[in-house]
C-alpha cells in the first residue's frame, strides 16, 4: 500500500466521511498493485446517489445505447431505496457503507456460454465469499457467511447480498449481483439490534484488547477495491470450470495467503472447489435454525451441510433430513430470556 494512504483502520482524522477514490477503484492509481489487472478488467463507476445500485445497473442493461459489459461495477455513495431479500429496505447515511452491484453476462459475443442457468444461483455465495475475503484483508475481522445471502461478524449482520436476473435488449440472460456492507456506522446508527458494522466491531475488539475506546475508520476505497477484484477473480475462475461448484478452482481465488496461486514451475495450481471454500466459512452449518418459507410452516432443526446444488440440508427435530433451496434462515441461540433464543 502506498504511503500516501492510511492503513485501512487507523484512527479517524476529523468527523467527515471520506468519498470513494475513483482513481484507485479504476486501477488508475497503483495503490493496490496486486489488484490492478482485475480493477482495470471492466468499467467501475462511482455515483453520488441512486435509488439502488441494482436498479441502476438493470436500467443500464435495458438501455440499448449503454450496453454495459461483463464485469461492470457500479457503486453509490448513497442509496435512496436500497433493498434486500423480500423487498426489505436497506438504508444507511451517505458515505458510510460500500454499496456495489456487478454485472455478470454468461453469454458474451465470440465465446460459448460460460454459465448455465442452473448455476447462476451460486453467484450470491460467490459475492459472499468475495465480501468475506475483502473484509478480512482490509480489517482482519473474521466475517462469516450466513446462508444464503448475508455476512456476519460475531453473529450480527454486517452485509447483505441480492442477485437479480434480467435480460439485455437482445434477450440474453444476465445477472446483477449487489452487496451492501455496513462500514462507518456506530452502534446507535444501526437500523436494528441484530446488525453491526466494521467500525463498531473494530471499536469493540480494540476496546476488549486494550481497555481503551479507539476511533477506528475503515478505508472504504481499499475495501471496495478488494471486493471488486475478489468477485471478478472468483467469477473468472468459476466460469473456467463451467460453473461447477465441485470442481477445483485455482488457489489464488480462495487462498488469500497464496496470492499468486502457482506451483514451483510457475503454473497455476488447483485449490479447493467453490463448495469446499464456502463450507468452512458458512456460519449456518452446525447451528439450530428456523427456516421461514412462503406458504409453508416454519422448519426447525440443525443445519448440517451445503449440497452441490447450493441447498441447505437441515436435520429436522423428528430426525429426518430436509433440503432447503429457498427461504429465510434464522439462527437460534440459547437465551435465558427467550424460549426461542436470540436470532440473526
Automatic annotation (TrEMBL):
EC numbers, comma separated: 6.3.4.15
Q: Name one GO cellular component term.
A: cytoplasm
Q: Which PROSITE patterns match?
A: BPL_LPL_CATALYTIC
Named from the GO MF annotations, one term is: biotin--[biotin carboxyl-carrier protein] ligase activity
Top-level lineage group = Bacteria
User: What is the enzyme's class at the highest EC level?
Assistant: ligase
Q: SUPFAM superfamilies attached here?
A: C-terminal domain of transcriptional repressors, Class II aaRS and biotin synthetases
Q: Which UniProt keywords apply?
A: ATP-binding, Biotin, Ligase, Nucleotide-binding
Write out the ranges of the annotated region (Disordered): 1-22, 64-94, 249-275
Task: Tell me which Pfam families the record gives.
Answer: BPL_C, BPL_LplA_LipB
* Residue span, BPL/LPL catalytic domain: 30-239
| Protein name as catalogued | biotin--[biotin carboxyl-carrier protein] ligase
User: In which organism is this protein found?
Assistant: Rothia kristinae
Amino acid at each position: 500500500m502506498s504511503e500516501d494512504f492510511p492503513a485501512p483502520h487507523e484512527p479517524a482524522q476529523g468527523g467527515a466521511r471520506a468519498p470513494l477514490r475513483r482513481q484507485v477503484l479504476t486501477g488508475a492509481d497503483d495503490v493496490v498493485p496486486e489488484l490492478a489487472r482485475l480493477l482495470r478488467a471492466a468499467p467501475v463507476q462511482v455515483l453520488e446517489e441512486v435509488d439502488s445500485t441494482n436498479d441502476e445497473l438493470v436500467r443500464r442493461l435495458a438501455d440499448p445505447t449503454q450496453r454495459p459489459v461483463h464485469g461492470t461495477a457500479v457503486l453509490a455513495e448513497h442509496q435512496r431505496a436500497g433493498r434486500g431479500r423480500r423487498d426489505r429496505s436497506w438504508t444507511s447515511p451517505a458515505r458510510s457503507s460500500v454499496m456495489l452491484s456487478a454485472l455478470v453476462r454468461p453469454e458474451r459475443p465470440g465465446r460459448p456460454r460460460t454459465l448455465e442457468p442452473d448455476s447462476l444461483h451460486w453467484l450470491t455465495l460467490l459475492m459472499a465469499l468475495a465480501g468475506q475475503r475483502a473484509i478480512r484483508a482490509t480489517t482482519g475481522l473474521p466475517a462469516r457467511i450466513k446462508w444464503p445471502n448475508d455476512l456476519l461478524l460475531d453473529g450480527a449482520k454486517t452485509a447483505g447480498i441480492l442477485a437479480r436476473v434480467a435480460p439485455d435488449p437482445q434477450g440474453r440472460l444476465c445477472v446483477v449481483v449487489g452487496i451492501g456492507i455496513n462500514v462507518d456506522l456506530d452502534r446507535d446508527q444501526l437500523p436494528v439490534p441484530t446488525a453491526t458494522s466494521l467500525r463498531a466491531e473494530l471499536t469493540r475488539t480494540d476496546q476488549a484488547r486494550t481497555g481503551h475506546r479507539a476511533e477506528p475508520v475503515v478505508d472504504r476505497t481499499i475495501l471496495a477495491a478488494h471486493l471488486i477484484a475478489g468477485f471478478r477473480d472468483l467469477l473468472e475462475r468459476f466460469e473456467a470450470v463451467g460453473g461447477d461448484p465441485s470442481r477445483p478452482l485455482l488457489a489464488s481465488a480462495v487462498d488469500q495467503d497464496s496470492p499468486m496461486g502457482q506451483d514451483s514451475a510457475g503454473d497455476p495450481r488447483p485449490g479447493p472447489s467453490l463448495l469446499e471454500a464456502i463450507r468452512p466459512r458458512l456460519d449456518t452449518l452446525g447451528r439450530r435454525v428456523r427456516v421461514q418459507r412462503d406458504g409453508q410452516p416454519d422448519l426447525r432443526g440443525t443445519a448440517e451441510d451445503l449440497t452441490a446444488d447450493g441447498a441447505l440440508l437441515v436435520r429436522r427435530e423428528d430426525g429426518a433430513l430436509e433440503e432447503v433451496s429457498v427461504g429465510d434462515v434464522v439462527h437460534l441461540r440459547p437465551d435465558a430470556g427467550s424460549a426461542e433464543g436470540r436470532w440473526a
